[in-house]
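Example record used in the benchmark description.
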Amino acid sequence: MDNPGDTAARERLARITVTVTDNLLRAEAAGETGKVGELTQKLTTGLHDTGWRVQKMAQGGDFKARQATGFLLGRGLLLAKDEKKSCVEFLIAAEQLASSGWHAAQCLMKISPDRAWLEMERSAVRGHSVAQEWMGRRCLGEFGATVSDYACARTWLAQSASQGRPRSQTLLAYLMMNGHGGSVDESRAARLYRLAADQGDPDAQNNLGEINEMGRGAVANPEEALRWYLSAAEQGLPSAQFNAGRLLAVGAESKKDPSRARSLLLQAEGKGIAQARQVLNWLDRQSTPESREPAAQTPVAVPSGNSNTE
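Model output (structure tokens):
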């Protein structure tokens, strides 16, 4: 900048920081990791000396500046890290902003869970896709809920899934595939699984493999099933490790690989998939004359997963 003392120019840069932070929080909610990285780099390079000015704007009552201040304090970007002060800013900004409501809920979750879920619901109503996902998962009995309400889950998950959240797409697909909370819709469920699988969701990949193997709503395609099982298995999903190992043991479209099958099945067994032992025992008997194919095994589908929290 030609004139470092130019107050108006500094204020413009601070306003840019507030806008960039708002866009970054939206990108995080959408799961756009590439965009998050790009915007974070922009903050830490071209806008690295604007934190104090943003904080001053927040003290003047600007809600988006308060949200930005909460983010910067929470991450230790442009301002010294201070999680308590970060939560204070998010709680104030939550009066108007959905992203702040999500973060305020996280701040409150341990100390005041009832209030946290009120903030979460308010954020979800305002369109925050992660808050919508969490509301849907709570309707499924997660996060300490004592009852399940599939119709409630469908409502929230449908809103979140429409914004591209892969976990919401996977859970909504499961509900639709099995008729929980509404009618069965196998074709839409398959489309949702594919959307989530293409984004790398391992549960969606495994369940898409099950659809292809069993021919639910389409012609069975064991080779395509194996491809999806392996994608999920590479991410460490036990049910997918079993499914991929099982197909590689008996051969799916000539893709027989006992060595790789054994490795995957041992991993699955070590993570609690008891059926893996039956296929492993069959592999052990392959050198004996009386060996035969193992009894038919039903693919292990995944109804839900709790590993993704945001």
